[in-house]
Amino acid sequence: MKNNTSSPKLVFLLLLITLGFFSCSDPDVKEGALLPFSQISTYNDVSIHLVNGPHRIDILGEGSISTVKWEQNGAHLHLKEINGLNPDYSIVQISTPSLESICLKNSSQIYIPEEFFTSKTLNLQILDAGRLETNDRFIVDSLITIKARNAARIYIHELSARLAEFDIHDGSRVDVGGQVNALVDLRVRNGARFHLDGDDHWFINNPLSAPKFQIHLTDGGNAWVHATDTLQALVKNGSHLYYKSLEGHLHIEKQDGGSATIKEEH
User: Fold this and answer.
1) Could you tell me which of 32, 77, 182, 265 has the fewest CB atoms within 10 Å of its CB?
2) What is the DSSP letter of 65?
C-alpha cells in the first residue's frame, strides 16, 4: 500500500513557492508604477511635481521611493506624507495621462513644469494655504472649476478651456492667463484677488480672456478681466472690478461702495 504522505522534498518545494508568493512585493509598485487614477489629493504640507505620462510616482534626484507614503482607493490617489527627502536635491514626481480632480490642503503644493493636458473636465480645490503653479500651457477640453479658500495661491501661466468657473474666498490669490473659448463664471469675495496686487513672480501681464464673463464680487473681492464680447457683473460691498475696454455688451451693477474701472495694462 502506497504512503499518501508527500515526500520531504516536495513539501520543501511547496513551502518555497508559498513563501515566495506572499513575500515578494509587486515589482511595479517598487519601480513607481501606480494603478490608474483620475483624482489626486494631499493634505499635509506635501510638495510634488505633476506631469503627463503613464500612471507613476518617481523620485527625481536623490532619495528612495520608500520615503513617500500614499494610498489608492479606486481612482483616488492620496499622498499622505514625504519623509526624509531634501527638497533642494529631490523631487517627488507624479505622472498621469489625465485627471478629473486635484485637492490640496494645509500648505501642500503642486508644481506643473511643462505643458499639461487633460481630456476631461477638471475640478481644482486649493484650500488652507495650498498652492498650485504651472509653467506652461494648461489645457482642459471642456470645463475647469476652481475653488480657492483660506489664503490659497493659484498661478496658471496659460489656461486653455471651453468653460471656466472660479470661486475664490478668504484672502486667496488666483492669477490666470490664457483663453477660455466660451464663458467664465467668476465669484470673488472676502478680500480675495483675481489677477491683482501680486509681486512680479505671481503677476501675469494680461488677464484671462473670454468672449463672455459673468462676475460677482463682494466684501472686498477684486478682479481684473478681459471680456471680448459680453461683460455682466455685480460689484458690491467695497469690491472693485477692473476690465479691459470692449465694444460688445457691458452691464455692471454697483452696490454699497462697489466700483468698476477700465484698466488696459498692469
Assistant:
1) 265
2) G
pTM, two decimal places = 0.85
> What does residue 258 show for φ and ψ, rounded to 5 degrees?
-75, 150
Q: Which three cell numbers stand for residue 108?
A: 501642500
Residue 93: give its domain's CATH number: 2.160.20.120
- Residue range 12-68, pLDDT digits in tens: 444 333 333 332 223 333 347 899 999 999 998 899 999 999 999 999 888 888 889
Do 200 and 258 share a structural domain? Answer: yes
Q: Are residues 167 and 215 in the same domain?
A: yes
| CA-to-CA dists, residue 163 to 49, 63, 186, angstroms | 25, 40, 11
Domain range for residue 39? 26-115
Residue 143 — φ and ψ, nearest 5°?
Answer: -115, 135
Identify whether the C-beta of residue 129 lies closer than 8 Å to the C-beta of residue 99: no
Strand, coil or helix: what is 29?
Answer: helix
The three cell numbers locating residue 225: 478681466
The C-alpha cell that represents 78 in the structure block: 492620496
Answer whether residue 4 is part of any domain: no
Q: 233 with 156, same domain? A: yes
Q: For 60-102, write each residue's pLDDT tens digit.
A: 888 888 889 999 999 999 999 888 888 778 899 999 999 999 9
